[in-house]
Amino acid sequence: MFTEKRKNIDDRPIDESAEFDPDKAMKYEVADADEFVRIRDSMKPDLLAYLTPHTAEEYRLMGATLYLAADKKSGFGFKPDKQLISVFSLYKRRGRQIVELTARLGATSVECLGEMLRRLYGQAGFQVVESLPWDEALAPKHWDYNGHGRPNYYILKRIVS
């Protein structure tokens, strides 16, 4: 699909042809925190670095509601205030469907690293309210600087009209 080698994940285009089709969408069910963490943590370390590494106990303490796809290959969560957290997929091309679904479920805000994720959330109505430069002191444990660079950290809110 790509004709040139790209150095940064943010250089990849979002798949504009991946239309959200609720009839073909993966079904999601409320998940146990321990199972959610076990499946989430099976991601490749360089992609897992994009997620805050909450433990099952931390999810329980924050009152998060966690969801896993029926095939157990993707998931997401909500804090009680509907802040979207821990969006992940073990398969490519599910991101847009997950984000569209979470927007329909009432997601109010999300935080992310990098331009590609900022654009993905932007397509679902999330708008940047704060952009922070990369902070070496907060760098994720398995961060791949060669593959992912030093992206900005974004705080986004969903504006519903």
Relative strand content? 15-25%
- Order of helices and strands, N to C? EHHHEEEHEHEHE
* CATH class annotation: Alpha Beta
Provide the domain count: 1
- How confident overall, as mean pLDDT? 86
Give the overall form.
globular
Structural class: alpha+beta
Low-pLDDT ranges: 1-24
What name is given to the CATH topology?
Answer: Aminopeptidase
Protein name: N-acetyltransferase domain-containing protein
Organism: Candidatus Falkowbacteria bacterium RIFOXYC2_FULL_48_21
Give a structural overview.
The chain is of the alpha+beta class. It has a single domain (about 25-160), classed as 3-Layer(aba) Sandwich (Aminopeptidase), CATH 3.40.630.30. Helix content is about 25%, strand content about 25%. It has six helices and seven strands, in the order βαααβββαβαβαβ. It has helices at about 35-40, 45-50, 55-60, 95-105, 115-120, 145-150; strands at about 30, 65-70, 75-80, 85-90, 110-115, 125-130, 155-160. It has a seven-stranded mixed beta sheet with strand order 1-2-3-4-5-7-6. β3 and β4 form a beta hairpin. α1 crosses α3. The radius of gyration is 15 Å and the shape is globular. Residues about 1-25 have low confidence and may be disordered.
